[in-house]
Design a protein that fits this description.
globular, 48% helix, 5 helices, two-stranded antiparallel sheet
């Protein structure tokens, strides 16, 4: 167990020349490192891509770590189920009358795409089942 961000996807990274910040620490926890690694060792949130270069940057700051494949599969499955529930609700609820129609429809379309991705080859659900 160690202090973990638990949500280090690219939407929680800010970068500037020579500097990088990991933001949005509201889910930080004392946890297995696999909660951080699930987003770095394959799998991504939506259509994010984390390649070798980004992975090297991550480990430069995170440090070397051994990981348990079974724990990694569990973390991916639990995150995938949370994402599926959230994205399904977002994609298939009635339009929000407080938002402009185009904005609401655009988000619901994006949520449906991200939901489908969870079951694609790099989605958390698929990776957890393969894992």
């Amino acid at each position: 167990m160690r202090g973990s961000h638990t949500d280090p996807h690219l939407g929680n990274v800010l970068a500037a020349p020579g500097r990088i910040w990991l933001i949005d620490w509201d889910d930080a926890a004392l946890s297995a490192p696999e909660h951080d690694l699930m987003l770095v060792l394959g799998g991504a949130y939506g259509d994010e891509y984390i390649g070798d270069r980004e992975r090297a940057w991550f480990f430069e700051g995170y440090g070397d770590v051994d990981f348990d494949a079974e724990c990694l599969a569990y973390c991916r499955a639990s995150r995938g189920l949370v994402d599926v529930a959230f994205l399904a609700e977002e994609a298939f609820t009635a339009p929000d009358p407080g938002l402009p129609a185009d904005s609401d429809r655009g988000w619901r379309t994006r949520a449906a795409q991200m939901l489908a991705h969870q079951f694609g080859p790099t989605g958390f659900i698929s990776l957890a089942l393969a894992g």
